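Holo prediction — tryptophan.
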Amino acid sequence: METPSGKTILSGIQPSGTLHIGNYLGALKQWVELQKDNTTYYCIVDLHAVTVPYNPKVFSERVLDAVAMYLACGVDPDKSVIFIQSNVSAHSELAWLLGTMTPFGELSRMTQFKDKAAKQKTSTSLGLFAYPVLMAADILLYKPDLVPVGEDQTQHVELTRNIAQRFNNTFGEVFTLPNAYIPKSTARIMSLTDASRKMSKSDGEKTYVALSDSPDIIRKKIMSAVTETEPVFSFEKSGPAVQNLLAIYEAMTNKDSATIEQELSGKGYKEFKEMLAEAVIEKVRPIREQYELLRKDDTELRIVLGRGAQRASQIANTTLHLVKEKMGLL
Ligand code: AMP
Ligand code: TRP
């Protein structure tokens, strides 16, 4: 897939703890590539993170962790607007307005809502139910062409298009209809211990490689990843566990699939896993080192965020103003 140019791009990640290589390959790697030749907005969606139980005492630290990790992965504040969602009040305001044109039934069908609601012990909040409307507001304020996310978010981007279309039809053209931008091979990195489940922080330490893991830990986790019975290295014909490891290897080394299949022919799983572990370690090492450096200096991170919020607010407020005008608000 060729990297687009000349487009407007927006994406967001929740500041909910450790980022893993699934987040990196499914989202952050694309963010970095896209910022070269596009106008890019990247936000930390803190208002989304508070829709599930969280610890307010350490929350601001988690937000700074997330910013430091974006920067460590190569998101560049001179090329991209990096900001915190709650610092730009237009997001919440537009979410309310868009909520008035979002059918209850459509929101009830959102898979992520159903999953998260099922996990909650107490009754589900309006905030969790309205989460996709806030995401639509995040996106539509910046009129992006593309929204780089993992495959699990396509349903939310579709909903965003529906809301935008409905607004444009009812009140007049304001919004651009965005498309999800999802590179195929890394759209869904699977768990290291169960290839039928998405790699996720909530499934336990052994199932993912965190961007903050040390080389020793990475090696241990990869060496104990599940494989198939027969060592077949084929992007088409291997079983799901090995296909997943191949996809990670491909993305970490930037080699093409034919080269990799040739490189691995005749090798066993142990040898492959050692190669994979080294590739992951080499990719993660500079990210972790940079992260530790950046995380020491809160002031610098806060300056980046202040600048980002200012630039984002200008764009967001212009769109919000137009929306209010079209809706007939005085
Ligand atoms: P989350 O951590 O679930 O908020 O996800 C942050 C971003 O990473 C979103 O764009 C997700 O689609 C993406 N993502 C999360 N897990 C994976 C995964 N296992 N494979 C690919 N992308 C993922
Ligand atoms: N819902 C997204 C997730 O769970 C996070 C998100 C919020 C987002 N607002 C966004 C992603 C806007 C892209 C664009 O990962």
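READOUT: The mean pLDDT is 94.
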